[in-house]
Amino acid sequence: SDLAIDVPGHGKVVVDIGYGGAFYAFLSAEQLGLDVCSSKTRDLVSAASAVTEAVKKQFKLHHPESEDLAFLYGTILTDGKDAFSEEPTTNICVFADEQVDRSPTGSGVTARIALQYHKGLIQLDQTRTFRSSTTGSLFTGKAVKATKFGNYNAVIVEVSGEAFYTGTATFTVEEEDPLKHGFFFK
């Protein structure tokens, strides 16, 4: 937490890095001269991507069980409202190749709850509501149990929200297909 990073075009900012199934950098959009609720999405995406790249260059992540998971997946810009409140807190998650999540992001909400708990801003079983700045969709989350993960203090987090089917697929395998079990390239 409270890691100072120099972001080209934006200067020094302070980020928190949290893990909730993936690593994310978190900071208020205000540090970048933006408002997560009213700035243009393209501006938020550009700024978040600059933060992601800067963190990747200036900070080495470690995962207690698998170094394959020790990479920054994206940056989540927030409204800065991290202390417990009944009011929703808003964020935008920019991940992978400048993709924007339509939701507050399950792994992101998990990481954000863990950070808020770590900083003493929320207690166990205090439910927070998180809003996506792009779609307005809502998730709730709460830390339900303090624990350890490797040598790290951790919490188990519950996240909930709505999900909707967007399609289905059917795969058919014919018995005569000589490649029905797949193949490898040399």
Summarize the structure.
The protein is of the alpha+beta class and 186 residues long.
CATH class: Alpha Beta
Q: DSSP helix count? A: 2
Structural class: alpha+beta
Total beta-strand segments: 9
CATH topology: Diaminopimelate Epimerase, Chain A, domain 1
Biggest β-sheet, characterized? 9 strands, mixed
CATH homologous superfamily grouping = Diaminopimelate Epimerase, Chain A, domain 1
Low-confidence segments: none
What is the mean pLDDT?
Answer: 95
Shape: globular
Please report the distance between the alpha carbons of the first and last residues. 44 Å
CATH architecture assignment name: Roll
Strand content: 25-35%
Number of domains: 1
Portion of residues within helices: 10-25%
Order of helices and strands: EEEHEEEHEEE
Gyration radius, rounded: 19 Å
Pfam families: Pro_racemase (PF05544)
Catalytic activity: trans-3-hydroxy-L-proline = 1-pyrroline-2-carboxylate + H2O
InterPro entries: Pro_racemase_fam (IPR008794)
EC number: 4.2.1.77
How would you explain this protein's 3D organization?
Helix content is 17%, strand content 34%. It is of the alpha+beta class. It has one domain (2-160): Diaminopimelate Epimerase, Chain A, domain 1 (Roll), CATH 3.10.310. Strands 1, 2, 3, 4, 5, 6, 7, 8 and 9 form a nine-stranded mixed β-sheet that branches. Strand 5 (89-95) and strand 6 form a beta hairpin. It is globular. The protein starts with a strand and ends in a 25-residue tail after the last strand. The mean pLDDT is 95.
